[in-house]
Amino acid sequence: xxxxxxxxxxPLAERILLNPASPGGRLPIRIRAWxxxxxxxxxxxxxxxxxxxxxxxxxWKPGEMGLARAYVAGELxxxxxIFAALGAVQQVMRxxxxxxxxxxxxxxxxxxxxxxxxxxxxxxxPPPEExxxxxxxxxxxxxxxGPLGEGAAFFTRILGPTLAYECARWDDGxxxxxxxxxxxxxxxxRLGLRPGSRVLDLSCGWGAFALYAAAEHGAxxxxxxxxxxxxxxxxxxxxxxxxxxxxxxRSGDHSAAGGGQYDAIVALSGTDRAESxxxxxxxxxxxxxxxxxxxxxxRSGPHSTRRTFTTSYVFPQDGELRPLGEIxxxxxxxxxxxxxxxxxxxxxxxxxxxxxxxxxxNWAECGRLASPxxxxxxxxYLAASALACxxxxxxxxxxxxxxxxxxxxxGEVFAAGREPSxx
Length: 423
Prior knowledge:
Elements: H1 5-17, E1 30-32, E2 38-39, E3 46-49, H2 53-60, H3 64-72, E4 76-79, H4 82-93, E5 94-95, E6 98-99, H5 104-116, H6 135-143, H7 152-159, H8 176-191, E7 198-201, H9 208-217, E8 220-225, H10 228-240, E9 247-251, E10 262-270, H11 278-281, E11 285-298, H12 309-313, H13 324-333, E12 337-343, H14 345-361, H15 363-369, H16 372-390, E13 394-402
Parallel strand pairs: 1-3, 7-8, 7-10, 8-9, 10-11
Antiparallel strand pairs: 1-2, 3-4, 5-6, 11-13, 12-13
């Protein structure tokens, strides 16, 4: 159907979305409006505008935040392959790393179209899933029962039964659980874990790596999480595995690690900035001890600090990414020696796609376990992040660091010793 709302949107969509390099001036997406009318190629991914409020959101917040709010609220939907849909829009909406620039004529056309469609009015309130601005966002994030408000049952449908949240290693197969076990074993080998090794997991999440290090290598692990509900769930997993003598899950940041030195420290969430606390971590490592972090990064160069979808809906505290060079420099300034830097960008993109597939397979159930809006938040985040990794707009690196001993040697053997005391 080409008459109706979609026909009124056509000139505006072509003005903004038409790629001059596209053969025959083909729109990269199909748009279907709330009255059933549509424009764009029939075989293209379809954006469904279910309510005129979606246009009002875009009028007030053009670009990423307007689109995200409309999608999370269910006023804008995507039919078909969400990766293809987001990829098509990203190709048009960005020139390099900059958003599309609208001329004065473009802006007048947007307002004129919005008036004719009855989409002009006060700015709609953000969806309830959006975190508040400022300190309230941090407080809200810290009160959530899971990393972002969802519980273990929700994330089991996405991450799988191990609830591992680190980058998987896909060298030997296509099974997510096997790829996660391969990743955990690679980390354990890089750390040189053996029975009695004392390990601090700075962002243990649901306890996946802590359990693996204890069960498979006899390590004694202190796992930290800022979520009380995550800590309770991880403790229950530890108890059911019969590993309470080896694994101690605590709520809090690195200040909850207690006294004594550790043989190894890991930070595997990809968002916690272990390098920002490097000066505090240095005395927590024994001479010859190792620190291993997996960190999402952005490209080097000028970077404007602004509120994004990620900081508004997913990680209010740790959503801003830093270039790899800044991370390495921060570690070296703390007198920690960087030994290896391993790129994991392609591996992480595949991991994100696997998590998104788990969410899509369990879509209705995830909506019930959290909320339809939170399920949309996670699908949008996972898909957009996977595409960003695949195109190189963000990276994922594993950085292995060692604390040299007084003679400058980097010890290779971890000795068993006394458990670090509780705070």
